């Protein structure tokens, strides 16, 4: 029995199921740690033209997805589950997804993800049928399918046994709230650029310190917003000050 099932309501089901079968999510599906279903609102239309959208009340450009096909698709998806579920609408108006939000939902039995197309969906579906409304960030894409795949990927890799030890989600949380340090592999020199000597030296404690310093420094340079949220230890403050001095950026 899968730990968690994802059910995606989408008019482009192959877009979601095909992409989900790659990499970490593909392996989790094969090993039946997660299950994935897709539900096409077009299959729930009642008219001969299989109409899923209609013109917006109040006028304006574009079309709006109708309530009934979406509602009936979600109703069928819910029948495959008895445990706790959430119904998440992916939309530009949603709450921007954070790692904390993914951690909070990964203990339910079913995540029903609603991928919209066109200008949006009837607001009464959001109010009556959805528990959450999530965005992937402040930029515009054409529909919710890629956003649903992001949720599937981000949640799946948090589940026990999905990642191997070497690549574990525990590693991700090790330098929690900081950007990663730079990585290098062979050759040792490339286009006149040398791998930092400390990484070649094999002194593991020094390597750890260098990596933490780089992680702090890059976060300070690129994502000062993240440092603002994080309380640094005295040791971390010291390493960051060393980084700033060495790169003399003030
Ligand atoms: C005219 C105003 N636009 C809203 C910002 C129209 C519009 C743009 C894009 C309506 C729907 C969409 C489709 N986008 C998504 O379905 C979507 C999305 C996004 O565009 N940005 C960030 N997160 C998400 S989650 C789903």
Distance between the termini: 57 Å
Q: Which shape, going by the Cα principal axes?
A: elongated
In the CATH hierarchy, the architecture of the largest domain is 3-Layer(aba) Sandwich
Mean pLDDT: 96
Strand order of the largest sheet: 2-1-6-5-8
Low-confidence stretches: none
Small ligands present: ligand 9D3
How would you describe this protein?
This protein is of the alpha/beta class. The protein folds into two domains: 4-156, 3-Layer(aba) Sandwich (Alpha/beta knot), CATH 3.40.1280.10; 174-246, Trp Operon Repressor, Chain A (Orthogonal Bundle). Helices cover 41% and strands 18% of the residues. It has helices spanning 13-20, 23-30, 67-78, 99-105, 123-129, 145-156, 169-174, 197-201, 204-222, 224-229, 234-246, and strands at 4-9, 34-39, 53-54, 64-65, 85-96, 110-115, 120-121, 132-135, 189-190, 193-194. The strands form three sheets. Strands 2-1-6-5-8 form a five-stranded parallel β-sheet. Helix 4 (99-105) links the parallel strand 5 and strand 6. Helix 1 runs parallel beside helix 6 (145-156) and helix 3 (67-78) runs parallel beside helix 5. The longest helix has 19 residues, at 204-222. The radius of gyration is 23 Å and the shape is elongated. The N and C termini lie far apart (57 Å). The relative contact order is 0.13. The mean pLDDT is 96. Ligand 9D3 binds next to strand 5.
Give me the secondary-structure topology:
Layout: E1 4-9, H1 13-20, H2 23-30, E2 34-39, E3 53-54, E4 64-65, H3 67-78, E5 85-96, H4 99-105, E6 110-115, E7 120-121, H5 123-129, E8 132-135, H6 145-156, H7 169-174, E9 189-190, E10 193-194, H8 197-201, H9 204-222, H10 224-229, H11 234-246
Parallel strand pairs: 1-2, 1-6, 4-7, 5-6, 5-8
Antiparallel strand pairs: 3-4, 9-10
Ligand 9D3 is lined by residues 90-92, 116, 119-120, 135-137, 139-144, 147.
């Amino acid at each position: 029995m899968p730990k968690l099932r994802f059910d995606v309501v989408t008019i482009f089901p192959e877009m979601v199921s095909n992409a989900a079968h790659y990499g970490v999510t593909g392996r989790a599906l094969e090993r039946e740690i997660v299950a994935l279903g897709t539900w096409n609102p077009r299959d729930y239309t009642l008219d001969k033209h299989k109409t899923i959208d209609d013109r917006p009340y109040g006028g304006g450009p574009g079309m709006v997805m109708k309530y009934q096909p979406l509602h009936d698709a979600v109703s069928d998806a819910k029948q495959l589950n008895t445990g706790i579920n959430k119904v998440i609408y992916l939309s530009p108006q949603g709450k921007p997804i954070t790692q904390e939000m993914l951690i909070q939902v990964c203990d339910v039995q079913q995540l029903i993800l609603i991928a919209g197309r066109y200008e949006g969906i009837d607001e009464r579906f959001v109010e009556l049928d959805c528990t959450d409304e999530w965005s992937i960030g402040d930029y515009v894409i054409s529909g919710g399918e890629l956003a649903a795949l992001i949720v599937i990927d981000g949640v799946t890799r948090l589940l026990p046994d999905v990642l191997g030890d070497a690549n574990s989600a525990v590693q991700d949380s090790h330098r929690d709230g900081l950007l990663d340090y730079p990585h290098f592999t062979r050759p040792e020199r490339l286009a006149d650029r040398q791998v930092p000597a400390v990484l070649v030296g094999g002194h593991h404690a020094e390597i750890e310190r260098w990596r933490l310093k780089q992680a702090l420094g890059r976060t300070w340079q690129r994502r000062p917003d993240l440092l603002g949220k994080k309380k640094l230890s005295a040791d971390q403050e010291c390493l960051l000050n060393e980084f700033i001095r060495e790169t003399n950026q003030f």
